[in-house]
Amino acid sequence: MSETLQPPDVAASDADLLGQTAIAVRAAGSALHERFGEVVRHQTREELMRALATNDDTALDTLRPRLTRLRPDAGWVEDELDGGALPPGEWWVVDPAEGNVNHLHALPEWAVTATLVRENQPVLTAVHLPLTGETYTALTGAGAYLDGRQLRVSQTADIGLSIVATSQARPDEDEKVVRRVGSSITAMLFDALVVRTAVPATLHLLNVAAGRIDAFWQFAGARADLLPGALLVTEAGGQISDAEGRPWTPRSESFLAAAPGVHAEAVATLSR
């Protein structure tokens, strides 16, 4: 009797790939951790940019060859300020030093992220925080996890009881975006319990996925700082949209991630 050949198990393959991706971001994080501890002084924008690039390169020297071996035919995106849709196929979207400027200033809020995007949909992501040793992972349809413990967004149902957060997408935003950010913070200060403002976006989104804060929003933004958190929040049971409640894509001009119980109120506040 001949055997019936079964199609490959894509989910199992992606689960194994996620495990290897987590190993890769941990290794890259270890390399960056060795460079952390003292404020890196800079007197000019050029000196700052060189220091940022050195950090990126340190992590990429570990991260890129490992991820390329895992998916040799996948494209590669490492510019954390890039936005918009990707060409067809698979792409690695990475931020080798998410919160890089914090790292240079000896602040603890930084991470290494890697997300596999397939036909413009995030399939899996791994985010490693070297200073705490934590690794957050998510796989489409399989949930979001912190070191193996499943994550769920908060059950808060009142924006007035919510901790919310926002972030600056990039330096040198145009005046329209800056003013929109300012007015949104003012609106949330009236409606929410506490408003947090800091970079990077990914760390706020980890907190939404873990149920520690209730909503995060940002105007403008880029793939590398939103895709990892978007997948984590979605797989943890949260809602993703733009700030006006419409479906979010990497082309969108705003982003909102929230617990379901406060999503509509957050949209209403941001739309004022």
Keywords:
disordered N terminus, 272 residues, five-stranded mixed sheet, 7 helices, Inositol_monophosphatase-like, alpha+beta, 23% strand, metal-binding, 12 strands
State the oligomer: single chain
Radius of gyration, taken over Cα atoms and rounded to an integer in Å: 19 Å
DSSP strand count: 12
Termini gap = 69 Å
- Uncertain residue segments: 1-12
Biggest sheet descriptor = 7 strands, mixed
The pLDDT mean sits at: 92
Helix and strand sequence: HHEEHEEEEEEHEHEHEEH
The 3D shape can be described as: globular
Number of helices: 7
Query: Helix/strand-derived class?
Result: alpha+beta
The helix content, as a percent range, equals 25-40%
Query: Which percent band covers the strand fraction?
Result: 15-25%
What report would you give on this structure?
Helix content is 39%, strand content 23%. It has 272 residues and is an alpha+beta fold. The longest helix is centred in the first third of the chain and has 26 residues, at 45-70.
Summed up:
The protein is α+β, with helices and mostly antiparallel strands and 272 residues long.
